[in-house]
Amino acid sequence: MPARKRRTLAGQAILSAPDHPCLTGVAPPIHLQLRAMSLSTITALSPLDGRYAPKLAALRPIMSEHGYMHRRVQVEVAWFIALSDAGFAEFKPLTTGARAYLLSLVKNFSEADSAAIKEIEKTTNHDVKAVEYWIKSKFEARPELEKAAEFVHFACTSEDINNTSHALQLRSGRDQVILPGLDRIMLKLREMAHAFADVPMLSRTHGQTASPTTVGKEMANVVMRLQTACEKIAAVKIMGKMNGAVGNYNAHLSAWPDFDWEAFSKKVIETPEPLGLGLTFQPYSIQIEPHDYMAELFDAVARANTILIDLSRDIWGYVSLGYFKQRLKAGEIGSSTMPHKVNPIDFENAEGNLGLANALLKHLAEKLPISRWQRDLTDSTVLRNIGVALGYAALAYTSLLTGLNKLEINEEALAADLDASWEVLAEPIQTVMRRFGVQGAYEKLKEVTRGKTVTAEALHALIQSLDIPQAEKDRLLAMTPGSYTGKAAELARRV
Question: Which class does domain 421-494 fall in?
């Protein structure tokens, strides 16, 4: 930005610094100047690797760059071993010892191995090529493998390795972290549904008193929603392709024109681990796997997360109403100035982190299926954040489960709320009136109840005046807000 002329009050023209606060030439205060800092949980930019690092230990080996490197090595080794079994005169089948050694590179892959690959990458400036060179470096002093070294990464484009590695990461992240996290929440909610199946609770529709339910039935609702959502997540087919630079096996056929490379690729991708990848074969692609399955998976996780946001907000409200108390933890402080407070922070934390997860998941779902022509790198850029997206989800599941485990039912508060809301019995009274043809049933109850403080006495007087069988009057007179719960208890126990 060029310097500009400006005028003083005296009208004298002077040169000013560029009109940009960051380019004034003024040194920042000493406390804002950059200092070299080591990376630790307290200097990490992301709270996932900082404040919350211990809670994400299960996800880190899978979704980190180390996890990505590990899967790349797995893919390259599976492809290499499969090539040795393809029947080519130039690449004889590997011995049992060589196969065991190669599979041990995958099984025993360590952080030190990842660091070694990163060191190679400083020279190659290409992360997949660095993996190839690292694998070849492990062939030293092994003549059988050294002789076949050029078949490492044979006919592959980088995306053949990357898309399958991401697929392996996502499958493991889904099956080992995301679904188990959701299952633990479902298990707790099912336990609550059964334990509180008979505990009546005042409902609120539009924030106004409505027909009562039970605490257990409300938990059961969420169980069933989550169950469906988890089935959708689990059903997503995790896809992979290994078909070359633009998806046509061009390089493969240039080497062996008569070989069925498509069938070979399919076999490598669909053969169970460790000799294959255990994925679903993607037969059509450009350079990149289309990523439609990823969008489907991320949308499915986001839908489950939305259900949990709904739950977190509802529980927050129930805590506010006093329906639930929260078990205290020794030494824990709710407010820095109000000693009485026990804040529903676990549900707030869950809601916030679920929102962050969904923001990323929805962007990934919208962006990943889009590529300019046969390839651009925008997918690669955002795919580096799949661990972040799933990390916020996993963190939220932990917070939510912690909060649910702290809850203690307050039946006295629930009962008091019901006892102050006799107007909810207007519904059953008018329904019985309709059964027996009492004209203007709805209007009569509306007149008695709407906008008024309704007492048991007022309702009982109305019931006594009705021209309906005495047995029905007696049944209505015996009814209380706490007993008017329909099939709620049965439905709660059924999940």
Answer: mainly alpha
